[in-house]
């Protein structure tokens, strides 16, 4: 039996979790900094890392207690400790990585550095319906928009990425234009429910079949120009039209990727995977769809522990002294 304490601190959530055998979540604790960063309209790195430092010990203690274990045990309460080593905000990554490595050293157990995006991929194994390799994955979050061909555990090919804004980042920026609160995804989704998604026609970046890549900066700019031209435009209609266009851009590229690869299993993960319209549109695709539970769409430590379990089980652990990296492609991971 494997018990892994996962730690996630790559951005503005401090999270800890205990997961058994890579799929059974015994505890999952998350403290969000959204209320602190909201007044700035986005994450302030220095504040984020300071807040991680203030709460990480207490959260690790709570995750272990919730799982019926103890942080202060003389013997190691878990079989391994895992933490995100990148990509993310450097200061924030260092907090979780340093704390996790110290715990593992004190307990004399393995430490597993985990790539944040690989964590999102493994969040799909925390649901009752679990995918089998190979599969196609759409990773959509505030910092990442990628289509990944997952050949086998820890063997990936990046088929597409965004050439500018990530889709979640675009939601945040458009929310600011509309005067809606940060983070933009939930606030736009809520406002869009009162609007007409066909009220305005916004452009879909890179809609051609020549590439699977995404582009969202033109969509964001189109919303800006629309608001300048029509300052009295309905915020609900603009929000609904923007959301429909952004999600339609994702679905368009998924259609193309499915056609290109022939893969019939699709995983969608990351914060934007919680979007109701994306889930609804993706369900209409002619593939087996795998979505993580809402609790594991946003940054969390259970997904980090799940990925770590697989790496330990298959003997593909990263070096325990792996340094934090603010940018690192999933494809660059040493398998």
How would you sum up this structure, described in words?
The chain is of the alpha/beta class. The protein folds into 2 domains: 3-122 and 296-332, ATPase, nucleotide binding domain (Nucleotidyltransferase, domain 5, 2-Layer Sandwich); 131-291, Nucleotidyltransferase, domain 5 (2-Layer Sandwich). It contains 10 helices and 10 strands. It has helices spanning 34-37, 45-66, 90-107, 116-122, 167-177, 184-192, 217-229, 235-261, 276-283, 302-314, and strands spanning 3-8, 13-20, 24-32, 80-86, 111-115, 135-140, 145-152, 155-161, 265-269, 288-290. The strands form 2 sheets. It has a 5-stranded mixed β-sheet with strand order 3-2-1-4-5, sandwiched between helices. Strands 8-7-6-9-10 form a 5-stranded mixed β-sheet, sandwiched between helices. Strand 2 (13-20) and strand 3 (24-32) form a beta hairpin. Helix 2 packs parallel to helix 3, helix 5 (167-177) crosses helix 6 and helix 8 packs parallel to helix 9. The longest helix is centred in the last third of the chain and has 27 residues, at 235-261. The chain is globular and about 65 Å long. The protein starts with a strand and ends in a 21-residue tail after the last helix. The model has no long low-confidence stretch (mean pLDDT 94).
């Amino acid at each position: 039996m494997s018990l892994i304490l996962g730690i996630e601190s790559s951005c503005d959530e401090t999270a800890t979790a205990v997961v058994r055998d890579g799929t059974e979540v015994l505890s999952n604790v998350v403290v969000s900094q959204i209320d602190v960063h909201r007044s700035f309209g986005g994450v302030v790195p220095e504040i984020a890392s300071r807040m991680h430092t203030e709460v990480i010990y207490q959260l690790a203690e709570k995750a272990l207690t919730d799982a019926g274990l103890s942080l202060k045990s003389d013997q190691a309460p878990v079989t391994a400790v895992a933490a995100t080593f990148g990509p993310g905000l450097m200061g924030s990554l260092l907090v979780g990585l340093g704390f996790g490595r110290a715990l593992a050293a004190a307990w004399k157990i393995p430490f597993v550095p985990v790539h944040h995006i690989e964590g999102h991929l493994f969040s799909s194994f925390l649901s009752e319906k679990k995918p089998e390799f190979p599969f196609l994955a759409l990773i959509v979050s505030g910092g990442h928009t990628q289509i990944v061909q997952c050949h086998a555990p820890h063997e990936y090919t990046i088929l597409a990425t965004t050439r500018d804004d990530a889709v979640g980042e675009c939601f945040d920026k458009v929310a600011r234009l509309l005067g809606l609160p940060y983070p933009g995804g939930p606030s736009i989704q809520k406002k869009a429910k009162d609007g007409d998604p066909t009220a305005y026609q916004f452009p879909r970046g890179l809609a051609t079949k020549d590439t699977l890549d995404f582009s969202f900066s033109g969509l964001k700019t189109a919303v800006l120009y629309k608001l300048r031209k029509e300052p009295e435009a309905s915020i609900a209609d603009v929000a609904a039209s923007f959301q429909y266009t952004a999600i339609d851009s994702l679905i368009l590229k998924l259609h193309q990727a499915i056609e290109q690869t022939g893969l019939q299993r699709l995983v969608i993960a990351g914060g934007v995977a919680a979007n109701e319209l994306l889930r609804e549109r993706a369900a209409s695709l002619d593939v087996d769809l795998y979505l993580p539970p809402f609790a594991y769409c946003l940054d969390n430590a259970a997904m980090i522990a799940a990925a770590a379990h697989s790496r330990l089980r298959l003997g593909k652990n990263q070096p325990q002294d792996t340094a934090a990296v603010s940018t690192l492609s999933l494809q660059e991971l040493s398998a």
